[in-house]
Fold this sequence. Notes:
A 5-stranded mixed sheet has the order 1-5-4-3-2. The protein is 13% helix and 49% strand. The model has no long low-confidence stretch (mean pLDDT 76). The protein has one helix at residues 11-22; strands at residues 7-8, 33-37, 43-48, 51-69, 75-87. The longest helix has 12 residues, at 11-22. It is globular and about 35 Å long.
Amino acid sequence: MEEQFILRVPPSIAERIDQVLSENPTSSDDNSVDLSFSEDGRTGTFLIGNNRFPVSLLDLPCIIESYKSYDDAEMNDEPDRTESDDSDDSM
Length: 91
């Protein structure tokens, strides 16, 4: 089963995520990215490098259609989204 989330983060964190995902994987802890949820399934933690940010799973007011590309040329229709993860950078 595939799960997809919309992760809203500040621009500085978005740039760092893009940088980490664009680089070749290494064993460095500075390049680790993780999203985990607590038992309630609505709150959790987003980890990038050594920085942790609290997240909340929010219900979206409408259905969002998403697309994914494996080769940056062809877009594939993905399941509809009804939830979003909101990261709080104040932690």
